[in-house]
Amino acid sequence: MSLVSPFVTCSQVNNLQSSRSRLTQFVLPHPLKNKLPISHFPPNSITNPSVFSSISAILTKEQQEEGKTTQKSQTFSPSPTFNFKSYMLEKASSVNKALEEAVLLQEPFKIHESMRYSLLAGGKRVRPMLCIAACELVGGQESTAMPAACAVEMIHTMSLMHDDLPFMDNDDLRRGKPTNHKVFGEDVAVLAGDALLAYAFEHMAIGTKGVPSERIVRVIGELAKCIGSEGLVAGQVVDICSEGNSDVGLDHLEFIHIHKTAALLEGSVVLGAILGGANDQEVAKLRKFARCIGLLFQVVDDILDVTKSSQELGKTAGKDLLADKTTYPKLIGIDKSREFAEKLNREAQEQLAGFDPEKAAPLIALANYIAYRDN
């Protein structure tokens, strides 16, 4: 099935009116709302890992305090009976248990230790949750989506391990801990990432039960495409080639992030939808929803990189500035970046209008979480 056309191009962001009166109905909590100065943080400021729990950032104190205002500002709100924090804790626990059982500590020990070190290091598990939530939205079960949910997290972890390597982004900190190559060496980190990539497909193919074989074949093809030379890898290589290039424009930047960041988020949602039995129209809507929140994820990431410290992020802050990368704040400024994020969140949630509101509540809440996150 061909991809639906993107919801909005980055070039359209210039058409957003700067009038604050038009934005009052879309007020977002920090970091999109706060008028924080762009600052440069030391690249090697190492944080205490104990500060970072994989779930502690689910709902910040400010989000809880501003909950009523936030719900009024959104196009859609989760059901009043839906408890997002409980949902996140429950799903993260299920995903972590499944990942723990999927990658066992066995011979050769060093490679499996390296795989488990990064895979089980925490993280918010947003991609697995999106996969499960999309499956349940269209009538599927968590157990049906779990192998695919684990697969996208394995691939996401691989991408982080490789991204942190000296010849890529050269980072020493990930999720509040030393990066994989700092602990196990560059050679093992590369191989452990390769092993996670290969095992993701094996685990999904063998572990998915109660689903027609044609659906399994379809999701394998979908996942391969979203991370290959037309997906994540395409975004990575164009990003690398664009470093230090002063001619990078909005369309170019959008291409990078739709492929580098949004592709795997899109794949997570689409995999869950297909496994859950969605029809083509439902898959198309959820694909557009996922592409919106995928680009939203990156816009917020760019904002956080220049408004938060390494301790708050659990990774090195300000590294995009050091690498002279083009980001949304650098290209269009902090205010326009916040406006664009608001627009993306609104358009994402509009794709869920035709679904059961109760079943759509987790995806609505996850979209809001991506917009409001602190790290």
Describe the 3D structure.
The chain has helices at 61-65, 67-73, 84-102, 109-119, 126-137, 142-163, 180-184, 186-207, 213-227, 232-242, 250-276, 280-307, 310-313, 319-322, 328-350, 357-372, and strands spanning 173-174, 177-178. The protein has a two-stranded antiparallel sheet. The model is unreliable at 1-75 (pLDDT under 50). The chain contains 16 helices and two strands. The chain is an all-alpha fold. It starts with 60 loop residues before the first helix and ends with a helix. Helix content is 62%, strand content 1%.
Q: Helices, strands, pairings?
A:
Layout: H1 61-65, H2 67-73, H3 84-102, H4 109-119, H5 126-137, H6 142-163, E1 173-174, E2 177-178, H7 180-184, H8 186-207, H9 213-227, H10 232-242, H11 250-276, H12 280-307, H13 310-313, H14 319-322, H15 328-350, H16 357-372
Helix pairs in contact: 3-6, 4-8, 5-6, 5-11, 5-16, 6-8, 6-11, 9-11, 10-11, 11-12, 12-15, 12-16, 15-16
State the main characteristics.
single chain; 375 residues; mainly alpha; two-stranded antiparallel ribbon; 2 strands; Polyprenyl_synt_CS; isoprene biosynthesis; Isoprenoid_synthase_dom_sf
Task: Give the % helix.
Answer: 55-70%
Mean pLDDT: 79
Q: Please count the helical segments.
A: 16
The percentage of residues in β strands lies in under 5%
Principal-axes geometry comes out as globular
The largest β sheet comes out as: 2 strands, antiparallel
Q: Please report the distance between the alpha carbons of the first and last residues.
A: 34 Å
